[in-house]
Structure formats: structure tokens, C-alpha cells
Amino acid sequence: MAHAYTPGLKVTKGTTIQKERRLPLEGEVLVEAGATVKAEDIVAKADLPGNVQLLNVANLLSVPPDEVTEHMLKPVGEAVSKDEIIATTKGLFGLFKSQALSPIDGTIEAVSDVTGQVILREPPIPVEVKAYTDGTVTETLPTEGVTVETYGTYIQGIFGIGGETIGNLAVVAKSSSDELTTEQILPEHRDNILVGGSLVRTDAIQKAVQHGVRGIIAGGIDDADLRELLGYELGVAITGSEEIGITLVITEGFGRIAMAEQTFTLLKAREGMKTSINGATQIRAGVVRPEILIPLASEATGSGSDATDDTADGILEVGSSVRIIREPYFGQLGRVIELPVELQNLETEAQVRVLRVELADGEQTILPRANVEAIEE
User: For 305-317, what is the HEC assignment?
Assistant: First the structure.
């Protein structure tokens, strides 16, 4: 059977998922292989070195740099408190002393007899890595992290902002084409992840933040709303580190685009369940997609008939579901009905491989294969 390879977008009802949870530097792994963990459990931790501050003690005491050490009241490595006297002169008959006070809580890291400066380091910054999803630890990497495996629903989006968050899923839109409005966001949605339909605007996002909503999943967002929300034009770098008080996962693209019916129906079926989402997105080399992960613990030992791990990612064949990612059919879904082997000429006179797609309304069209992405059902 003819087939081709194209970028894939996963929308899977049930599959085995492995998430690698790593520390940014060496630390301590808190769980063992085989352990059952909850999404909120801390599986590894480390301490990032605190920030460094310089204190020009030579100037404060009005002494030569090579004499600073003899005026220090505490040795290198000693802990100090903010506003504590760390160096002083003897003064005249015990009077008219000059003093140097620590500007921070921290430790004395070094004293320079060349510059006369004392290097102070702030307390370490704790870094904790959570399991992110309910599951089982299948592998541990000493001092680095773990791999957590779970069985569940897995959906990839087109674009997102904000980092990892966890909450119960609440579907507030009545249909996949409905806009998520401020009126639909209620105080009882605190700590939930809301599912909208075709569009989410800045005012709705801001109200969700006020009510303590942890995340929003919607079909589309306007680039103007995105600029207003962030306060700057988003570049091509990876997203996910934005601190806006909420995580967004956009499943279709920019503008008013109805959420794919398959995706909306699947989320509707999972309403009320614990859900993990991550808005991190990278569209350049090393593609990173925003994701929605819903563990199905009760089905983990089932037949797994809905899993898609036995199908290679990105394979197109007759019958495959695809999403069109170029105009004039941008955002529409369809199924591949033919994969011609021969190259065909475009209006630009370029020769490319194409496919024939049947759209949801029954219309058929021929498109370059680069204009679609596979939906791995």
C-alpha cells in the first residue's frame, strides 16, 4: 500500500506515554523504579547556586585592598545575615569605626586582596521536579531524574504558552465552534483546566487568571490578543517560560478556528478527570508541541486497543486523517483517498509530490503533501 511521511499531530484516545523528568543540574532522585506516583509528587530535587553579590569593603572601610582580610569578622564559608557587620576597622580609641554590612542573607564566598571586594552568595534556590502525570516510575537516572510511564489520552496542540500545570478538566463550551467568553468562567472553576471552542480572547484569559484557573484549551487565539496578553511580540524561540498565571494550549491555530470535532468530543468525554498540560512550543529544529495528557489509570491494564504506539509516527496512507496547514483550506480536516507516486506541477512550476484529500463536507482536493500534517488517532 502506498504511504508517505509527514509531520504528525497526535490525538489519541488511549496510548502508553513516557515522560522523562530531569533536573537542570545534578541533584537527588527521591523515588525508586517501580514506584507509583501522583502528578503532584516531587520525584527529584536539587539546589541551584544562589546569586552572587559584590561588596567593596575596601572603599567602605577606607583601607587598602590587601588589608581587607585582617578587618573581616567572619571567615570565608561562614553564613551571614542581612545588615550583619562583616568587617570593621579598630577606629581611634575605639571610636570612629568604619563598618561594612552584609546586604543579603547568605555566605561569604571569597575575599579579594587585589580589588578589596568581598563576594557574597545568596542562599541556594531549591529546584523540584514533579512527576507531571499519575503513573509508574520505569527508570531512574541517579542524580538526574526519572522516567514516568502512564496509559492515557494524549493530544498535541499547535501552539501554547506557559509551563506545566495540573488540574481537573472542565468543558465550558457547548460546541467546538463556540467562543470561550468571560461569562462562562466562574469562581468554581478555580484550579480547573477549561476547554473552550473556537476562540479565546484576552479578557477571558485575564478573568480566568483572576479566578485561579490553571489552564485553558481552545481552538484558536488572535495574534493581537496574544501580544496584549504578553506585552510583547512573540518571537520564534521556544515558549513555556511565560509567567502570566495560566497555561494556554491552542489546538488549531491563530484566529477563530473551531476545535477539531474529534478533539472536542474526546475532551468532553474526559470531563472532570485530572489533566496535565504544557504550553511549551518550538517550531524550529527539534520541534516541541504543546500537549494535553489525561491518565486513564483504570484502563492501564486493558487491551490497549486504542493505543497507537504500534504505528510509526508521521506515516500517511490511504485512509489517514490529516489536517490542512496552508490556505485556502487551512485548519480543515480530511482523509487521504489517494497518494499519487508521480510528481505534479504547481502554479509556481515547482514539481512536488501530492495527495488527494476528501474534506469533511465531501469535497475532494489535490494538495502538496507538505500542506498537511497527519493526525495520529
Answer: CCCCCCCCCCEEE
DSSP tag of 95: B
Cα–Cα dist 132/278, whole Å = 10
Cis-peptide into 328, omega within 30 deg: yes
- DSSP letter (8 states) at residue 6: -
Query: CB under 8 Å to 364, separation ≥6 — which residues?
Result: 337, 356, 357, 358
CB 323 within 8 A of CB 375: yes
Alpha carbons 258 and 332: distance in angstroms, whole number: 9
| Residue range 284-328, pLDDT digits in tens | 666 789 999 999 965 544 434 343 333 345 567 888 888 887 778
Assessment of whether the complete model's pTM goes beyond 0.85: no
State the DSSP code for 1: -
SS3 content of the chain, % helix, strand, coil (to 5): 15, 45, 45
Q: 135-158, pLDDT tens digit by residue?
A: 999 999 999 999 999 999 999 998
Roughly how many angstroms between the first and final C-alpha of the chain, as a whole number? 19
Domains and CATH numbers, the chain: 52-121 (2.40.50), 158-289 (3.50.30), 315-376 (2.30.30.30)
pLDDT tier at 33, thresholds 50, 70, 90: very high
Determine phi and psi for 58, rounding to 5 degrees: -60, -45
- Taking a C-beta distance cutoff of 8 angstroms, is the pair 376, 8 a contact? yes
> Distance between CA atoms of 56 and 66, rounded to whole angstroms?
13
Distance CA 213, CA 186 (A): 9
Q: Percent of the chain scored above 70 by pLDDT?
A: 89
Distance of CA 57 to the CA centre of its chain: 43
Residue 249 has which C-alpha cell? Answer: 494550549
Beta carbons of 349 and 366 less than 8 angstroms apart: no
Q: Phi/psi at 107 (nearest 5 deg)? A: -135, 155
